[in-house]
Amino acid sequence: MIVEQKLKDIQTRAAEIEKQMNSGDVSGAELTKLSKEYSRLSDVLPLIAEYFQTTQGIADANEMLHDPELKSIASQQLIDLNHALPEIEKKLQIALLPRDEADDNSVIMEIRAGVGGEESALFAGDLYNQYKSYALRHGWKVEVIEENATSLRGYKEIVFKIDGVGAYARMKFESGIHRVQRVPETEAGGRIHTSAASVAVMPEAKDIDVVIDDKDIRIDIFRSSGAGGQHVNKTDSAIRITHFPTGIVVTCQNERSQLQNKISAMSVLRSKIYEKQRQEQMNASNASRRSMVGSGDRSEKIRTYNFPEQRVTDHRIKLTLYKLDDILAGGEALDEMIDALIAADQLERLANLN
User: What is the C-alpha to C-alpha distance for residues 131 and 331, in angstroms, rounded to an integer?
Assistant: First the structure.
């Protein structure tokens, strides 16, 4: 149910913020904070205006019913407005749902090959290329932080950052086990194999989100190794950071310098700690993120890519799209699937409010 006073309070707050930003009396940091809040409020302001316009129209039409000359017009207006109001209320309820504080963040993603040997590593590579293409299509930047490549252009593991406002809001539902069914390049008999890769999506944490005490970490320096490094076995530039309180270990050897690797490794470590803290908070608040859509459970099988049938099925919402090539290319079909997941999550959270 829409509480009209809350809607009026939002309008008032938006007007206050606009006045503050135009006054010239706010610092740069405060202006950034106000701009971010106003941006969020401005998304719902048109819906609020439409809601009040519709409810006022219903009130006016009810008054017009008392006028014999206007009764027929008023009756039709009431039919139209009463038909439109529930949809407007639904849109408002969704817009007013509590936001995930990390939705605007960039993301750190990890893809690891699972069961299936080299075929699983190839599939991990396919998933990385899918997300890379998707990110670039949305105007986001992609930076590889750590990779363990195989000789056949696959990955045993790859860690990368997608840098862009709102990246986490769209990518967070990708966490889980992705399964592929196809004839592997390494299979001479033409038999269909099933293999899998795991995907983890973490919001990038800022210094303000996670404070890491120097005494809580150990930094080890070692010589880079593995495929792809241009300075492999030449310099001791690879970094391993161990965080004692959580037991989290992060390595990075992709950058050219020890300092760059340390910066990248600290970024991943901070994001892993941030994710752990968020997960603990979610568990403490019981059902806040227990839904099948948004649980983020890395051990949960969420999607199957079936090459012979050219189909992709998301098992959480039981959605199947026969657009495998476009999805693996990071095209509009992947947006279609992510949009459906976001909508399902919103509806589930709405139902939990009642």
Answer: 10
Q: Which helix (H) or strand (E) holds 131?
A: helix 117-137
Handedness of CA 313, 318, 322, 325 (dihedral sign): negative
Q: Which residues contact 181 (CB under 8 A, 6 or more apart)?
A: 192, 193, 194, 304, 305, 306, 307, 308
- Which tens digit of pLDDT belongs to each residue from 148-163? 999 888 999 999 999 9
What is the pTM assigned to this prediction? Answer: 0.75
Spatial CA neighbour of 194 closest among 215, 206, 180, 210:
180
Q: How far is CA 296 from CA 114, 128, 180, 243, 249, in A?
A: 17, 18, 19, 23, 20
pLDDT digits (tens, 9 = 90+) for 255-270: 778 888 998 899 999 9
Start-to-end CA distance of the chain, whole Å, equals 9
Q: What's the Cα-to-Cα distance from 22 to each of 13, 19, 31, 252, 280, rounded to whole Å? A: 14, 5, 10, 45, 40
